[in-house]
Amino acid sequence: MNAYFDIFSGISGNMVLGALVDLGLDLKEWKKELAKLGLEDEYNIETTKTDKHGIGGTYLQVKLVDTEHDHDHSHDHDHSHSHGHSHGRNLDDIRDIIDKSDLSESVKEKSKKIFLNLAKAEAKIHGSNINEIHFHEVGAVDAIVDIVGSVLGLEMLGVDKIYASKLHIGNGFVECDHGKMPVPAPATMELLANIPIYSEGIEAEMVTPTGAAIITTLAEKFGPRDEMKIIKSGYGAGTRDLPIPNLLRINLVEETKGIKQKKTQ
């Protein structure tokens, strides 16, 4: 089974997770597997059914246990200034958490690759090396849950290969701790090098660094749907009310001759 990510309204980590749950991911089993990271006392997962412009989807939220407010993926892009933050885990810390877990080797390797790509993008923006930055967003528990949880969920649904549409990125500026940043945020833009993107002028950050890292690391090919047989579709909701439905659509697909030609081994 393969998956096609239809990114008509952006992508974030929790939109991926919401879409996987919407596709029928066994939430109880997934949480049990995710607990192998040893972080389960630091977060709670909440899912709610939602409606965006008449399309039903699933909204998944990672709530941190030890903070007074929910961490927002999109608002703190300046990770280099967060050395003292309690969630400041660097790349080595994150690799360590993943390596020590009993998750499958495939989940570990893919998750670490996503984090490495995210770390490279952040380091380049901040002019430092990948191990100097104590990522606030990247190291925070919700990003670990988003990234490892996405890889895990895709494996549990039996997805082998991932394809994606071009990315709708949004426009304008986003408010961060250090003032306004252009959309896409610099780290996101770095991750989207050589990836087809477009904007229809919607004033919102639609692609987060975590979302960009997940899809650019995992997808083999970006573009329109080739000939494929769609088995099932799931919708993961974002938090925004936009002029278009703020949803990520993931199709579970079977390959037909259109894609197989790309698969020469």
Describe the structure.
This protein has 265 residues and is of the alpha/beta class. The protein has eight helices and 13 strands. The chain has helices at 13-22, 27-34, 91-100, 105-126, 141-156, 186-191, 209-218, 257-260, and strands at residues 2-6, 43-52, 55-64, 161-164, 167-168, 170-171, 173-176, 179-182, 197-198, 204-205, 221-222, 228-237, 247-255. Strand 7 and strand 8 (179-182) form a beta hairpin.
Summarize the structure.
By secondary structure, the protein is of the alpha/beta class. The protein contains eight helices and 13 strands.
Kindly report the spatial arrangement of strands forming the biggest sheet: 11-4-1-13-12
Determine the oligomeric state from the structure. single chain
Helix and strand content put the structural class at: alpha/beta
Q: Helical region count?
A: 8
Helix content: 25-40%
* Principal-axis shape: globular
Average pLDDT for all residues: 87
- Poorly predicted runs of 5 or more residues: 67-87, 259-265
Query: Can you summarize the main beta sheet?
Result: 5 strands, mixed
- Distance, first to last CA: 18 Å
Q: Work out the radius of gyration.
A: 17 Å
Reading the helices and strands in chain order gives EHHEEHHHEEEEEHEEHEEEH
Strand content: 15-25%
User: Could you give the count of β-strands?
Assistant: 13
